[in-house]
Automatic annotation (TrEMBL):
Compartments where found: Membrane
PANTHER family on file: CADHERIN-3, CADHERIN-87A
Cellular component terms per the entry's GO annotation: plasma membrane
Coiled coil regions, renumbered to chain: none
One of the record's GO molecular function terms: calcium ion binding
KW Signal (keyword) present: no
Keywords: Glycoprotein, Membrane, Transmembrane, Transmembrane helix
Membrane-protein topology: Single-pass membrane protein
Transmembrane keyword on record: yes
Protein name: Cadherin domain-containing protein
Main location: membrane
A GO BP annotation: homophilic cell adhesion via plasma membrane adhesion molecules
Cadherin domain ranges (all copies): 8-92, 99-192, 199-292, 299-371
Length: 381
């Protein structure tokens, strides 16, 4: 017997007596062997156990019973009442750990399973079973008493899993329990850097902002710091500065001197993990104003014929490959403009000059590039 209800009949009592036809009464009496009398009762000739027995608490009882005949003569005897060890259902499952770091390898052991059972010495098998709470069972496996996660977890994709586990003892009795397995949000390395703009016009002032830096990171809510670091692609780092998340050019750039810069930038998250990336910063070739005009000659002999070419005009410009047009324009120094003509890049005198009449002329010439920028210069001759 085990786990039977209170006041279950253990057995019927009977007496042996030399006299036939006697009647007997039975009672629990003190004395040697009466250790557990209080756990039992007698009703008529039936021995009853007062409370439900539990093998694990007490496997055997000792009682002392007296039979008394109708004449008051009695006989005492000690009995052992044994409790049968009946297999009982497991009552709980424990998981040694219910958290796992993100990015661990596939088939990582999450924890060890163990069972609570009223019976000592039982053996158990574990399985993932369907039912309420089994939402994520397919993401896990059980090997022996170990719970394994099938694929590498990612906190950003799924931070918690719900599974239903069954423990089954050697007799086929089982107990189910729902577990939550939580993924720890491990700090991960940034994966990219973006620069909002990687071009700058030439001639902008020193410390102009090129663009804003931003980072890509598997972790949401991270903060980042940026720095220029040595390494491959860091050729022109010294020409730049980073302030907060802004990339600045230290000096005014000149396309004609350097059209492109290579820099190496590092983003570092609040946990010290970093990612480096090489950027090319390109300088836009902005059209610039011509800076000078030259005459190949500024003298002419008197009495040469009208429309004689005095000189060829040429321009100085920061931009290479520009084209120029020339014109006589009014303004300071343009006193004798009416006496000259420009054809293409040639300066012509309209009439035959006479030294005795005029030995010198003042003219104002303009060079205009293809973008409309111009420069004026006065010539004396």
């Amino acid at each position: 017997m085990k786990n039977v209800s209170a006041l279950t009949v253990i057995g019927n009592l009977s007496s042996t007596d030399p006299d036939s036809g006697n009647s007997f009464t039975y009672s629990l009496v003190g004395g040697s062997g009466a250790a557990d009398n209080s756990a039992f009762s007698i009703s008529g000739n039936q021995l009853l156990i007062n409370n439900s027995p539990n093998f694990e608490n007490q496997a055997s009882y000792s009682v002392r019973i007296r039979t008394t005949d109708q004449g008051g003569l009695f006989f005492d005897k000690v009995f052992s009442v044994n409790v049968n060890n009946v297999n009982e259902t497991p009552t709980n499952i424990a998981l040694s750990a219910n958290t796992v770091n993100e990015n661990v390898s596939a088939l990582t052991v999450v924890g060890n399973l163990s069972s609570t059972d009223p019976d000592s010495g039982n053996s158990f098998t574990y399985s993932l079973v369907s039912g309420s709470g089994a939402t994520d069972n397919s993401a896990f496996s059980i090997s022996g008493n170990q719970l394994l996660i099938n694929n590498s977890p990612n906190f950003e994709n799924q931070a918690s899993y719900s599974i239903l586990i069954r423990t089954t003892d050697q007799g086929g009795l089982f107990f189910d329990k729902v577990f939550s397995v939580n993924v720890n949000n491990v700090n991960e390395t940034p994966t990219d850097i973006a620069l909002s703009a990687n071009t700058v016009n030439e001639n902008v002032p020193a410390n102009t902002i090129i663009g804003n830096l931003s980072s890509t990171d598997p972790d949401s809510g991270n903060s980042f710091s940026y720095s220029l670091v040595g390494g491959s692609g860091a050729t022109d780092n010294a020409l730049f500065t980073i302030s907060g998340n802004q990339l600045l050019l230290n000096n005014s750039p000149n396309f004609e001197n350097q059209a492109s810069y290579n820099i190496r930038i590092r983003t570092t998250d609040q946990g010290g993990l970093f990612f480096d990336k090489v950027f090319s910063v390109n300088v836009n070739n902005v059209n610039e104003t011509p800076s000078n005009i030259a005459l190949s000659a500024n003298t002419v002999n008197e009495n040469v014929s009208a429309l004689t070419v005095v000189s060829n005009l040429s321009s100085t410009d920061p931009d290479t490959g520009n084209s120029f047009t020339y014109s006589l324009v009014s303004g300071n120094g343009a006193t004798d403009n009416a006496l000259f003509t420009i054809s293409g890049n040639q300066l012509l005198i309209n009439n035959s000059p006479n030294f005795e009449n005029q030995a010198s002329y003042n003219i104002r010439i303009r060079t205009t590039d293809q973008g409309g920028l111009f420069f004026d210069k006065v010539f004396f001759g």
